[in-house]
Design a protein that fits this description.
By secondary structure, the chain is mainly α. 62% of the residues lie in helices and 1% in strands. This is K+ transporter Trk.
Length: 444
């Protein structure tokens, strides 16, 4: 029996690995060195912050820019980087640096962590992940530092550039501007908006898509996965920006007082940030309720597989839409970009969506009894936590300890993925020895 503890499945190792990182981050954030006051952060608040950082969410119960010291901020930034790329990716980095052999078990873990169907080329993919991340984050940090050097001392601008480049690329949403302002001071700044949106979209597309885009000039082809991700991501961003622009055009509390340029930048940024980034350039709490509910839908869909984002994923949503269209047209097969999808993929998409809906609704119902807030605000916060977005209507600051624990569970589940957690907690599946006779029932 004891030997079985060392034969854990890849999903269980991933769950335990992320839990260990969160625990280590919690202990570091509880030290007096992590706060500007020199006081120890309460355990629940430290756990919430470490979970939010490791699960690249961005929900906070203490202001990152004013409450945490430089040491505490570096701990948070490190947790974001490890959580965004995945602890197995970081472990592989050390193996490559020290020229240690990548074992078969390590490759199985990487396959599970990167949500791949095969181990073929997995180490090569990890090398690309590390290279792309480094290049994108360094480039963005330099651009941020140059822009912010006009507003603050150069050293501080460089530090802000590195922190926000890491935070935004990993779709975390933590910021250092203080008083929970995020990027509201730069709502109409073209450079900040463009760089921030580029980081968010790059991190949310997924490393498979980034790799194929980088090789496109040579290969001149994209896989079905990349075509679906790019088309769905582009469609959601454009539709989201258009809806937000229309709903908030005359809202004096958000974008009503901005000129056309500011309205366009603000609309696109709020649409892009629902890719699970968590940063915001307008006050989310002052948006119209129609806009807030629409953002809940966008957050629930989330980013793409193999990325730093959460949600049910763009590919899952595309499969659901495609299945509905195929059913309406009376077709037996669902076809995307001239490729037929198997029934297994459709069942998996439906399973993920139903599990996510059940989890979000159940958590929102529980929070409705523990927190004093409107249901829309609770649903918004719950979806934001599950989709690892980090956008907030202001409820997180007033959460009870029970509410914080519930959102910690939602962030943890959202980052690992529902199926990964289900496989980790569920019994090992056995081979089916028989099939039941087919039945018929009336639907609709």
């Amino acid at each position: 029996m004891p030997s079985q503890w060392f034969k854990l499945s890849p999903p269980r190792i991933l769950v335990l690995g992320f839990a260990a990182i969160i625990l280590a981050g919690t202990l570091l954030l509880m030290t007096p060195l992590a706060t500007t006051t020199g006081e120890s952060l309460p355990f629940v608040d430290a756990l919430f912050t470490a979970t939010s950082a490791t699960c690249v969410t961005g929900l906070v119960v203490r202001d990152t820019g004013t409450y945490f010291s430089t040491f505490g901020q570096i701990v948070i930034m490190t947790l974001i980087q490890i959580g965004g790329l995945g602890f197995m990716t970081m472990a592989t980095l050390f193996s490559l640096v020290f020229k240690r052999r990548i074992s078969l078990r390590d490759r199985l873990l990487l396959q599970e962590a990167m949500n791949q169907n095969t181990m073929e080329g997995i180490v090569r993919l990890i090398r690309k992940v590390l290279m792309y991340s480094l290049v994108i984050e360094v480039s963005a940090a330099l651009l941020f530092a140059i822009r912010w050097a006009f507003d603050m001392p150069l050293g501080r601008a460089a530090y802000y550039g590195v922190f926000h480049a890491v935070s935004l690329f990993n779709n975390a949403g933590f910021d250092l501007f203080g008083n929970f302002h995020s990027l509201t001071g730069y709502v109409d700044d073209p450079l900040i908006n463009f760089v921030a949106m580029f980081l968010i979209v790059s991190g949310g597309l997924g490393f498979i898509v980034l790799s194929e885009l980088a090789d496109f000039r040579r290969s001149r082809k994209l896989s079905l996965h990349s075509k679906v991700v790019l088309s769905m991501t582009g469609s959601l961003i454009i539709i989201g920006a258009l809806v937000i622009f229309i709903f908030e055009f005359t809202n004096a509390k958000t974008m009503g007082s901005l000129d056309w340029s500011g309205k366009i930048w603000g609309s696109f940024f709020q649409s892009v940030t629902t890719r699970t980034a968590g940063a915001n350039s307008v006050d989310i709490g002052t948006l119209r309720q129609a806009t807030q509910f629409f953002i809940i839908i966008l957050m629930f869909i989330g980013a793409s597989p193999g990325s730093t984002g959460g949600g049910i994923k763009t590919t899952t949503f595309m499969i659901l839409v495609g299945a509905v269209i195929s059913m309406i047209r009376g077709r037996n097969d669902m076809v995307l970009f001239r490729y037929r999808l198997s029934q297994e993929r459709i069942f998996k998409a439906v399973t993920i969506t139903m599990l996510a809906l059940f989890l979000v609704i159940a958590a929102a119902m529980i929070l409705s009894t523990t927190e004093e807030a409107g249901f829309l605000s609770i649903l918004f916060e719950t979806t934001s936590a599950f989709a690892t977005v980090g956008l907030t209507m202001g409820l997180t600051l007033d959460l009870t300890d029970i509410g914080k624990i519930i959102l910690c569970f939602m962030m943890f589940t959202g980052r690992l993925g529902l199926l990964t957690l289900a496989y980790a907690l569920g019994p090992k599946k056995g081979k089916e020895l028989y099939r039941y006779p087919e039945g018929k029932m009336i639907i609709g």
